[in-house]
Write a structure and sequence with these properties.
Blueprint lengths: L1 H10 L19 E2 L5 E4 L13 E6 L14 E6 L12 H13 L4 E9 L2 E9 L14 H15 L11 H6 L8 H13 L5 H8 L9 H19 L5 H14 L31 H16 L7 H13 L24 H10 L5 H12 L13 H12 L3 H18 L21 E2 L2 E2 H9 L21 H10 L9 H7 L3
Antiparallel strand pairs: 1-2, 2-3, 3-4, 4-5, 5-6, 7-8
């Protein structure tokens, strides 16, 4: 059905404009053109650029590889990174450019040849990129290029990128912890400073531990993401200064989740007798995108040794609620039936895989959600209010299924990561589907560098969310991964009736 809807949408849309013959872009949504230093526009229907064959340049950064070669309103008609003369794009211009960038970066010199149209004249121009090497077959594992991208990304953060919302970007520095790197000590010093800055005052921690309900809107997002950062920091460093804050946040979340273990943008109400863990109530119901981060935070707090009496009951409620969806579909928006339309739903399949991997009694639920995350590469750019949480959690959830699962998922998304990667080592958040912010280095002040570098840091296994202590007994088999690949972008149209009936067993 999804493919039928997509075909109908494309069929009912005007043909791509010829940008070299008076055609104009249909909107102002641009995307990063990898490490060239340029941004461009391509024909798209939401995030689908499959019909595009041209890219119009919208901006060029000063000092970047494209400076002086590309200019605003130039149109790129083709690209090649193998050393051959470029031909006009014959498939998705965005994907084709990413492929050419990858080919160029594997060579020395890393020459990217482009067919450039400018004011009626067409010529071939060359942009010299940095030689990065080729992705290995198991990337990001055992991959020199992936390691170099991580190293440059961490350096870019240190040169002037803040940790962003809730200091969540601190996780990038922690995930990149590598004692053999001479720059590591400076990164860990900064991570320590950022983590300790999250410690509330004594009065605030007392309030967090009390039975007083904080009715502030969006409070659950702050509580959950902050707890994840503090817990991962402690588990890596053993810095006891943050332990009281970890306990305070964990108790606060435990006491303010609902009777089902859910949360919304706000905490749950008290029960009529004043006790904790009542119904959600209020004008806005459960929001699992925030509640599941709180669930992950509680599980990590338990790993830190927190044993408060409120913790285990809260984990049990959350575990029961979220496990219901295993075998049925993705975790939905709130307290309702599974989201069966796609394998991923704002990163919640990836989140569920991570959460269930930390639970001793939910191995099958963890495997199911890891498979769901692996199968979501073609859904990467979708998401309510934007795609950031797919970018963030899906690859990490796939990695909970083991290296094969993670590498398979990575092979399907690396071309998008290459387009997101800027010439200065940072990453741009791009979202073509028209929901939420559509360009820049951040999504609502969450850094795109965080989402990208956590993926490239998977081989280091420094954090629980990047593979630390993952149990190989819970990893996906090669058959599991093959099945996940088969259903990623599944096309029902050419299947016979007998095949469709068999397919329903998946």
């Amino acid at each position: 059905m999804g493919l039928l809807l997509l075909v109908a949408t494309l069929t009912g849309t005007a043909a791509p404009p010829d940008l070299t013959n008076g055609g104009v872009p249909g909107d102002t949504v641009s995307f990063n053109l990898g490490p060239t230093g340029a941004r461009g526009w391509a024909y798209h229907v939401k995030q689908n650029t499959s019909e595009s064959r041209q890219i119009q340049i919208k901006s060029v950064a000063n000092g970047s590889p494209a400076a002086g070669i590309l200019a605003v309103d130039d149109v790129i008609l083709g690209a090649d990174g193998t050393g051959a003369e470029p031909l006009n794009f014959t498939y998705d211009a965005r994907r084709a450019l990413a492929d050419a960038i990858n080919e160029a970066e594997a060579r020395n010199p890393a020459s990217l040849k482009l067919i450039r149209w400018r004011a009626g004249a067409t010529s071939t121009v060359e942009i010299t990129l940095q030689t990065m090497g080729a992705y290995s077959a198991t990337a990001p594992y055992n991959c020199t290029k992936s390691a170099l991208i991580l190293q440059q990304g961490l350096a870019a953060i240190m040169s002037g990128e803040t940790a962003g919302r809730y200091s969540f970007g601190t996780l990038s520095l922690l995930a990149g912890n590598n004692l053999s790197d001479p720059d590591n000590a400076a990164r860990m010093t900064r991570a320590q400073s950022e983590a300790r800055a999250l410690i509330p005052s004594a009065a605030t921690m007392q309030q967090l531990m009390s039975d007083e309900r904080d009715g502030t809107s969006m409070i659950t997002w702050q509580r959950g993401h902050t707890l994840v950062v503090l817990a991962e920091y402690y588990l890596l460093t053993g810095d006891a200064q943050v332990l009281p804050a970890i306990e305070a946040y964990a108790v606060n979340i435990s006491r303010n989740s609902s009777l089902f273990g859910t949360m919304g943008h706000m905490f749950a109400n008290k029960n009529p007798d004043g006790s904790d863990n009542g119904p959600m109530g209020g004008v806005y119901g459960p929001v699992n995108s925030s509640g599941m981060v709180c669930f992950l935070g509680l599980l990590l707090a338990r790993e830190c040794g927190i044993t408060h009496e409120t913790l285990e009951p809260a984990i049990t409620r959350m575990s029961r609620f979220y496990s219901y969806y295993a075998g049925r579909g993705a975790v939905p928006y709130g307290e309702h039936e599974a989201f069966w339309q796609r394998h991923e739903s704002n990163g919640k399949s990836g989140l569920a895989a991570l959460c269930f991997h930390l639970l001793g009694n939910r191995a099958e639920e963890g495997k199911f959600n890891a498979k769901m995350a692996v199968a979501a590469t073609t859904e990467r750019e979708l998401g309510h209010t934007g795609a950031f949480f797919n970018y963030l959690w899906s690859p990490l959830g796939a990695a909970a299924g083991g290296e094969l699962a993670a590498a398979t998922h990575f092979s399907g998304i690396r071309w998008m990561l290459d387009l997101n990667r800027r010439w200065d080592g940072k990453f741009d958040y791009d979202c073509l589907n028209g929901e939420g912010p559509n360009s820049g280095s951040a999504y609502n002040d969450y850094r795109m560098s965080t989402a990208a570098l956590l993926v490239y840091a998977l081989p280091l296994r420094q954090l629980h969310i990047t593979g630390k202590n993952h149990d190989s007994a819970r990893f996906l088999t090669s058959n599991d991964v093959t099945e996940a690949v088969a259903v990623d972008g599944y096309n029902a149209l050419p299947r016979t009736t007998g095949q469709l009936i068999a397919d329903l067993g998946s």
